[in-house]
Design goal:
The chain is α/β, with parallel strands linked by helices. It is 46% helix and 14% strand. It has one domain: 3-Layer(aba) Sandwich (Rossmann fold). α1 crosses α8. The longest helix has 27 residues.
Length: 276
């Protein structure tokens, strides 16, 4: 006897799916049989991922939207329901440090920095979750998964606003899980550690990546397809009793990594990292 994850007959929305973690999540959900709506703010990125899924025999549609806007989120969700019939799975992957607002010491953050970074992480996640939950409650329930960050589990020098916003999403997940559970909706968070996405590979030197790897118990960083596999499991019936949880996927970094605030390597790392 074998055990497989089967999402056949389900429709999934993955936000921020034009690259990196979101792209891999979309591809793995499609491989498990789901019809996938690929959201990105850039039409060409969404179209490219849809083409990849279709080339593997899956079904996907592009959904271009700026998820910072209530109306755009409502239109996105309505489009998915209209074209795919429902939203059974939603993976909210958007969240980053906006371009031009690289990490810096806490005292250098101004009001515009706070508003922008919280908007792109906490507010955006809440807007997507609200629209997705509304659609799921009107149907037969569903699963909402937020991608947050391992930075929420330890002090995050030079990156305090981003970490605080992501930590707030973790708490939002618990509140949503309690409210939406009676509607048949599960809500969880998946928190990556340092993940070898295209953005990270371009921003970090090989030496710095090796330092990060050696700071974890597994002596490695996370691959984005590993996060996609975890997302595919957490949104499946195999995980149907799991809700309101925060799942770390960080190669054990939470257990052992300790980096002082004056660490030059950390400063260098944070300067280049603009994506989760």
């Amino acid at each position: 006897m074998s055990i497989t994850i089967d999402h056949a007959g389900r429709a999934a929305l993955v936000t921020g799916a034009g690259a990196g973690i979101g792209r891999e999540v979309a591809r793995w959900l499609a491989r498990a049989g789901a019809a996938v709506a690929v959201n990105d703010i850039r039409a060409e990125n969404a179209a490219a991922v849809v083409a990849e899924i279709e080339a593997e025999g899956g079904r996907a549609i592009p959904v271009v939207a700026d998820c910072r806007d209530d109306d755009a989120v409502d239109v996105m969700v309505a489009t998915v329901v209209d074209e795919l019939g429902s939203i059974d799975i939603a993976v909210n992957n958007i969240g980053m440090i906006p371009r031009g607002r690289n990490p810096r010491p806490f005292v250098q953050y101004r009001g515009d920095d706070w508003r922008d970074i919280i908007d792109q992480n906490l507010t955006l996640a809440a807007l997507c979750g609200r629209a997705e939950a509304e659609a799921m409650a009107a149907a037969d329930g569903g699963v909402i998964l937020f991608v947050t960050s391992g930075e929420t589990t330890r002090p995050s020098p030079y990156n305090s606003i981003y970490a605080a916003a992501k930590a707030a999403v973790n708490h939002l997940v618990t509140s949503m899980a309690v409210e939406l559970g009676p509607e048949g909706i599960r809500v969880n968070a998946m928190a990556p550690g340092t993940t070898l996405t295209e953005t990270v590979a371009a921003a970090f030197t090989e030496e710095r990546m090796e330092q990060i790897a050696q700071s974890t118990p597994l002596r490695r960083v996370v691959e984005h397809d590993e996060l996609a596999r975890l997302a595919t499991f957490l949104t499946s019936d195999l995980a149907r009793c799991i809700t309101g949880q925060f799942i770390l996927a960080d190669a054990g970094a939470f257990l052992s990594r300790s980096r002082p605030a004056n660490d030059e390597g950390l400063k260098s790392e944070l300067k280049g990292a603009n994506a989760q």
